[in-house]
Design a protein that fits this description.
Blueprint lengths: L1 H6 L6 H24 L12 H18 L11 H31 L2
Helix pairs in contact: 2-4
Length: 111
């Protein structure tokens, strides 16, 4: 809800914000499935978890009116769009890496 509201603001594109939501949900889904299948409930990845993501969102929300939502030279993206794209790509990459590792581990165990 918070990220969708930020995406509706003049500081970030909605599509970029929704990509961050997709990355967050993918990693959450992996965590919940791994908890059920493997018995491991892991909340943090790369020394960051949900609390750190919320703190980043709060800091970004405070910085938005200070920095402004202007486009970066010649592009249609703001600084916040690029930040959200980097974060969402990290989340999706973590999902792919963690899911692949879990699949390999289950394959070695035989199911």
């Amino acid at each position: 809800l918070m990220i969708s509201a930020i995406g509706m603001s003049p500081y970030m594109r909605l599509g970029v914000a929704l990509m961050a939501v997709i990355g967050y949900f993918l990693l959450s889904i992996h965590t919940f499935i791994a908890a059920k299948v493997v018995g491991e409930f892991r909340l943090s990845y790369m020394a960051g978890g949900p609390t750190e993501l919320r703190l980043m969102l709060m800091a970004m929300t405070i910085a938005m009116p200070i920095i402004g939502g202007g486009d970066i030279h010649g592009t249609n993206f703001s600084v916040f769009d690029l930040f959200a794209l980097v974060v969402s790509s990290i989340l999706v990459t973590l999902f792919i890496v963690q899911t692949s590792a879990t699949a390999r581990m289950l394959r070695r165990r035989g199911g």
